[in-house]
């Protein structure tokens, strides 16, 4: 569907320093670089925003993202979102920017918050989030866990797989003893062999773990299915696997109880919303997470989560990982995190505007 009114389109590069260096599979990173897409429909006086923040290993490169967005810009000037999305089909981060700008534009025209546009009729002012406890020795892990529970977080996410299985089991056991009621999620980021994973799952059976994320290599769907068969008390969530396989395939192979949806890696909030619907139909749960994005993409993820799974804790409270964010103006920062929940913006569309980037 081509809408005729021409649009003003701007694309601005940004670079945001991280609060602390982050180690990823593709090496340490100290900043997040990406593009802010702004589309303005002058005739209707509506401005909408999208964000592309590529992450090596998950999306196209920064250079490829720029090239694709430059191509898509011509289609956007003609207000042809369908053509722009086609141009971006093999570049998830670029496609994310275009699809979010389209959704934001439509929601602003409808005078509704984005999460309402994305498919829920229920008002939602806050969304539970998980605290990222990360990897540390036992004492530090327990200290971080206690701090998060004291701050009101209903759910903790521990990184496992950096240390030995026995060391990780000691950490998980200590956190479970210190915080008996909190929901505990573990993320192994593909670190375990099948043998190590079965040993870990044996020991986790009585520790009431909400799920283990990506215990095995992304391509090992059969291994994950076998883990689920052998250990029904500990659910399996898949994250990296969804960058390689469709959610239909992952669930058809019985490889996951939970689908971890990263809109930036999947190619947009529309794609992620579709994946959430597939998961729901197949009885799987979803967790929405960011890829340490700037505020526009984080807001997109918050709205999506509020639309598809508002009662679950999501991995979207990642703003503190940035030392600086895109300028949003106003006195209040969008997406405040308090008491283990993030505020869901209630204004039209994303709920805020972004100022000019220095
Ligand atoms: Mg993960």
Automatic annotation (TrEMBL):
Mg(2+) binds at residues 187, 213, 239. Converts 2-succinyl-6-hydroxy-2,4-cyclohexadiene-1-carboxylate (SHCHC) to 2-succinylbenzoate (OSB). It catalyses: (1R,6R)-6-hydroxy-2-succinyl-cyclohexa-2,4-diene-1-carboxylate = 2-succinylbenzoate + H2O. Keywords: Lyase, Magnesium, Menaquinone biosynthesis, Metal-binding. It is an enzyme of class 4 (lyase). It comes from the Archaea. It holds the Pfam family MR_MLE_C. This is o-succinylbenzoate synthase. Pathway: Quinol/quinone metabolism; 1,4-dihydroxy-2-naphthoate biosynthesis; 1,4-dihydroxy-2-naphthoate from chorismate: step 4/7; Quinol/quinone metabolism; menaquinone biosynthesis. GO terms for biological process: menaquinone biosynthetic process. InterPro entries: Enolase-like_C_sf, Enolase-like_N, Enolase_C-like, Mandel_Rmase/mucon_lact_enz_CS, Mandelate_racemase_C, OSB_synthase_MenC1. Residues 138-232 form the Mandelate racemase/muconate lactonizing enzyme C-terminal domain. It comes from Halospeciosus flavus. The keyword Coiled coil does not apply. Its EC number is 4.2.1.113. Its cofactor is a divalent metal cation. The active site is at 159 (proton donor), 262 (proton acceptor). The gene is menC.
């Amino acid at each position: 569907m081509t809408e005729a009114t021409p649009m003003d389109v701007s694309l601005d590069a940004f670079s945001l320093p991280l609060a602390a260096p982050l180690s990823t599979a593709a090496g340490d990173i100290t900043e997040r670089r990406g593009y802010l897409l702004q589309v303005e429909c002058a005739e209707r006086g509506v401005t909408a925003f999208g964000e592309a923040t590529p992450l090596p290993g998950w999306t196209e490169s920064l250079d490829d993202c720029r090239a694709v967005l430059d191509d898509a810009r011509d289609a956007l000037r003609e207000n042809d979102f369908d053509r722009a999305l086609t141009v971006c089909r093999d570049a998830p981060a670029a496609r994310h920017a275009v699809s979010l700008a389209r959704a934001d534009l439509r929601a602003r025209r409808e005078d509704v918050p984005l999460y309402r546009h994305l498919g829920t009729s229920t008002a939602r002012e806050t969304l539970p989030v998980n605290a990222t406890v990360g990897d540390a020795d036992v004492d530090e892990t327990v200290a971080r866990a206690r701090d998060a529970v004291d701050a009101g977080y209903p759910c903790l996410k521990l990184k496992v797989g950096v240390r030995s299985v026995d060391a990780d089991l000691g950490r998980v056991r200590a956190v479970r003893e210190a915080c008996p009621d909190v929901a505990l999620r573990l993320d192994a980021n593909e670190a375990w062999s099948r043998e190590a994973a079965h040993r870990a799952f044996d020991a986790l059976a009585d520790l009431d773990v909400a799920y283990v994320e990506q215990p095995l290599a992304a391509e090992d769907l059969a291994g994950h299915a076998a883990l689920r068969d052998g250990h029904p008390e500990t659910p399996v969530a898949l994250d990296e696997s969804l960058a390689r396989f469709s959610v239909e395939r992952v669930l058809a192979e019985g490889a996951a109880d939970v689908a971890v949806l990263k809109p930036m890696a999947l190619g947009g909030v529309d794609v992620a919303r579709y994946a959430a619907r597939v998961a729901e139909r197949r009885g799987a749960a979803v967790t929405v997470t960011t890829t340490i994005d700037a505020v526009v993409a984080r807001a997109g993820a918050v709205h999506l989560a509020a639309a598809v799974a508002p009662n679950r804790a999501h991995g979207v409270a990642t703003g503190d990982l940035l030392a600086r964010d895109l300028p949003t103006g106003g006195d209040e920062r969008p997406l405040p995190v308090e008491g283990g929940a993030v505020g869901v913006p209630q204004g039209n569309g994303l709920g805020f505007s972004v100022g000019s980037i220095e």
